[in-house]
What does this fold into?
Amino acid sequence: EVQLVESGGGLVQPGGSLRLSCAASGFTVSSSYMSWVRQAPGKGLEWVSVIYGGDKTSHADFVKGRFTISRDNLKNTIYLQMDSLRAEDTAMYYCARDVTFDLWGQGTRVTVSS
Amino acid sequence: EIVLTQSPATLSLSPGERATLSCRASQNINKYLAWFQQKPGQAPRLLIYDASNRATGIPARFSGSGSGTDFTLTISSLEPEDFAVYYCQQRSIWPPFTFGPGTKVDIK
It folds into this structure.
């Protein structure tokens, strides 16, 4: 079955770190554009990061220097390392496939609060 | 950065009615616009890509049109399961990929 499964979310204090995982099955992440998209409670969708090609990456300005997207081809998994977390990073985080965003995971919730 | 504007913010309709949702881009994005449906507690689902192509498994009552800066999603006859929030998104000029603010289609 072709699917994405996110994990790693939770409650973290401001300034803390989390690493999100997105495990893929039914296709290979190494040959796909893979993105993270987030959605704050009651708000719209916001693109965060993408990894593609030979480990090329790009991040939204609001996470540059704080978040890092990476990939483990052997585990067929992508990651989002989130450092220096802020209250405004509180959101559901989804991973999605391809530049068409044709496949989404169910999301993992991140809450940044003291 | 490409800014997408969606209208209306809310569309109140009855089952069986036709829904017309609009998305406008701040500059020319050619055909590179997608539409997503999101229901409460669920992940978004791709409906339409490249302005007019239905994604796999999407019913024919969903159609997309437009190019350049003005795009439309049409639901020809609303089914009960179509009441949801709809987002447009562009991939013409990235980063960043940008999404519109969404249109909520609710039951009248």
The interface with chain A takes residues 34, 36, 38, 43-46, 49-50, 55-56, 87, 89, 91, 94-102 of chain B (CB under 8 Å).
